[in-house]
Design brief:
This protein is an alpha/beta fold. Helix content is about 40%, strand content about 20%. Helix 14 links the parallel strand 13 and strand 14. The structure holds adenosine-5'-diphosphate and magnesium ion. The site of adenosine-5'-diphosphate has 20 residues, from helix 11.
């Protein structure tokens, strides 16, 4: 093992370590420790000093201490279950060593009479006499225990002693990896090498030393690794040659003439970006990012029509069937009659599905809409040229890459997302793509007015709702999210429905996760046709759906949501021309902190700004959608604390890209941190 002078040692499984058997390995595997490298990031929380500290007379009760003693007399009781006892002493006093569940022979062996030994353990006192029970260490050779021991948050089944042994073994055998950073970068971290940094990371003196150079170097390694992987994927995809898509802009203008609004400048600019990519001979892999309600759908449909005109097929994937149908209906309205489009839905009859599959194969259908069903194996396209993926924030880098591969080389890819990602994270989340951003909201939009209300002011809220309904407006009523139980979640929405239905008979509809898709669509369609005035719902309305006539949203127990999530929910209203309101309801008076949070929301309608603030308040782990985003969380790096390192890595990646640096020199870094050999197997 010692001779492995590269990262293979670190990527070996744990049984390669002395003293780790199958059992320990299984225990650690459950904690997502799969190899030696993973173990390095389980950091010590505190430490125990086991250097010889005291004479017996100076011992402190209840502390772990190490002393040199001379055993004087054995007391081995004849009664079972009573512990074996050894009376010991030094020049200053007496102490008893107590052993439960031990054999006499063993005790005699480790504590021979009249020979000095060192023992270490927690000191207690019994009937005025010091004692030490089942000492952790007993040794004639005190060099073994005169050390400082790290305390790790232990996993059941593994003792501190074993754990320290394992870690020390790894630290002793760390391979000397050749430095991947330039001198220029290394200087910023006081030239700390990777090896030294890891050793220092486990040095008890350095516990919680987040600001030190070695710590920052390791955090930076991690950030840069993720940036390089993304950048490489992006480069590789860009190199893929495809057939250029040739189209004129006539259909484009036909659509625009059908709209009762003008495209915003950002929508136009995004279309120019996309069209340029479609025409080019290189594959497109682009993200269209824009806040809720910024009008991404229309941009994607116009570009889809361009692709269809050029003779290729298009596939649009949405996260829910409701959303897929909404896009399909819009396309039906906007596209010329001679363009054949289809909706792939779980509602389809078998025969219907067969027909769609056949017609996609024969190039009779030019565009298909659906959920991930559009990527089933049995769906074969005659000539797929464009994949559009809506609200893709649940896909990570690798999933996106897979999708892109699936379409084949001629297939351009557009992803759309409203999830605002804080700036520091853009590169790790979207670094594999080109990005077009729609910042500007359609000009007819009025800012949603946001209010907070205590639950005991329900009567006021109901009065307000009544007035809105009389004016012909529609209301979303979002019930408390009860995380602990889907059942309760569902129940609370049912209760609210009953309550409101009494007040507004026949005007209230209910939507929750347990309702079948068919039924859901029916309800939503009726709501869209204004057959209902209030839609009571759990958070399933969050993603994408577009009801321009709804202009009030009431969110109960609003403190259960993150700011970004509240912003997404709020984005369901204010899509038409009428003034919209969002009422956040709370069970009890807000704390100072909660007030601060809500004020951010009241004062801003900008999703990016809100997500930055949300991240600062809650930490990035809790950000909306972040956990499901597929973005692996960092081990050391923290997007808030280490903003400077993220910016540094961003600068560096630009340099790497511009100078076309051979990333071979980062091979070990990428292999260790991304568990992937980008050079061989990702791309
Ligand atoms: P999102 O970006 O959240 O997906 P949508 O594409 O669903 O937003 O658009 C939201 C609403 O805004 C839709 O009703 C759409 O018709 C409308 N819309 C889109 N672009 C404009 C515009 N330039 N001016 C006015 N309304 C627009
Ligand atoms: Mg959308």
């Amino acid at each position: 093992m010692k001779n492995m002078n590269n990262c293979d040692y670190l990527l070996s499984d744990l049984t390669k370590l002395n003293g780790v058997g199958k059992k320990t390995m299984e225990i650690l595997k459950k904690k997502k420790v799969n190899n030696i490298f993973d173990l390095l990031w389980r950091l010590p929380k505190s430490y125990t000093d086991r250097s010889i500290t005291s004479n017996i007379c100076d011992l402190q009760i209840n502390k772990v201490q190490t002393i040199k003693i001379i055993p004087k007399k054995y007391q081995f009781p004849r009664i079972r279950n009573l512990p074996n006892r050894v009376n010991c002493e030094d020049e200053t006093g007496k102490i008893d060593c107590i052993f439960f569940n031990s054999y006499e022979g063993y005790v005699k062996k480790i504590l021979p009479l009249n020979e000095q030994v060192s023992i270490s353990g927690k000191i207690s006192s019994y009937k005025g006499k010091y004692q030490i029970t089942n000492p952790t260490y007993v040794s004639k050779d005190n060099s073994i225990i005169e050390t400082v021991h790290n305390k790790y948050s232990l996993t059941e089944g593994i003792t501190e002693k074993t754990y320290n042994k394992i870690i020390n073994q790894i630290l002793k055998n760390l391979p000397k990896l050749s430095e991947w950073h330039d001198q220029r970068i290394l200087k910023k971290f006081d030239n700390e090498s990777w090896n030294n940094s890891i050793v220092k990371l486990h040095d008890p003196k350095n516990i919680n030393n987040y600001k030190s150079s070695f710590y920052k170097r390791l955090a930076y390694d991690e950030i840069l690794a993720s940036f390089i992987v993304n950048s490489e994927i992006r480069k590789k995809i860009k190199k893929i040659k495809k057939k250029s898509k040739i189209f004129d802009q006539k259909p484009h203008y036909e659509i625009i003439n059908k709209l009762n609004f003008k495209l915003t400048n950002d929508q136009k600019a995004s279309l120019i970006d996309i069209n340029k990519d479609l025409v080019s001979k290189n594959k497109m892999f682009r993200l269209l990012q824009g806040d809720v309600g910024s009008g991404k759908t229309i941009v994607s449909l116009i570009s889809a029509l361009n692709v269809i005109t050029s003779g290729f097929q298009v596939s649009l994937m949405a996260p829910t069937e409701i959303l897929a149908r909404q896009h399909y209906n819009l396309a039906k309205k906007l596209f010329a009659k001679n363009i054949s489009i289809a909706l792939l839905s779980s509602k389809n009859e078998r025969i219907e599905i067969k027909k769609i599959i056949n017609e996609l194969k024969n190039n009779k259908i030019q565009m298909v809409f659906g959920t991930h069903a559009v990527f089933q194996k049995k769906i074969i396209f005659a000539n797929l040229g464009y994949i559009i993926i809506d609200e893709q924030h649940k896909f990570g880098v690798r999933q996106r890459k897979l999708l892109s591969d699936k379409g084949g080389n001629n297939c351009d890819v557009l992803l759309m997302s409203a999830t605002p990602i804080p700036r520091t994270l853009t590169m790790s989340v979207y670094g594999d793509m080109d990005v077009s951003i729609i910042k500007e909201k359609p000009s007819n939009r009025k800012e949603v007015k946001t209010f907070s209300k205590l639950e005991n002011k329900m009567d006021d809220v109901l009065k307000f709702v009544k007035k809105e309904i009389i004016d012909g407006n529609q209301v979303f009523w979002v019930c408390p999210l009860i995380e602990e139980s889907k059942k309760l979640d569902h129940q609370s929405s049912v209760n609210k429905y009953k309550f409101l239905n009494k007040l507004f008979p026949n005007k209230v509809a209910l939507l929750h996760g347990k309702i079948e898709n068919d039924e859901k669509e029916l309800i939503l369609n009726k709501f869209l046709n204004k057959e209902y005035s209030i839609l009571v719902s759990t958070t399933i309305i969050e993603v994408g759906i577009d009801f321009p006539n709804a202009n009030v949203i009431i969110i109960e127990n609003a403190n259960k949501f993150g700011l970004s999530q509240l912003h997404q929910l709020r984005g369901r209203v204010g899509r038409g021309t009428k003034q919209a309101s969002c009422i956040l309801m709370f069970k009890s008076n807000l704390t100072v902190n909660a007030k601060k949070r809500i004020n951010i929301l009241k004062n801003s309608n900008d999703g990016f700004e809100i997500s930055e603030e949300d991240m600062k308040l809650r930490g990035f782990g809790d950000l909306l959608g972040f956990k499901q985003s597929g973005v692996k969380s960092f081990r050391l790096a923290d997007p808030i604390q280490n903003e400077d390192l993220f910016l540094l890595a961003e600068k560096e990646i630009r340099i790497i890209e511009q100078q076309n640096t051979d990333i071979n020199k980062y091979k070990s870094l990428l292999k260790l941190y991304d568990q992937a050999d980008i050079i061989n197997d990702i791309v």
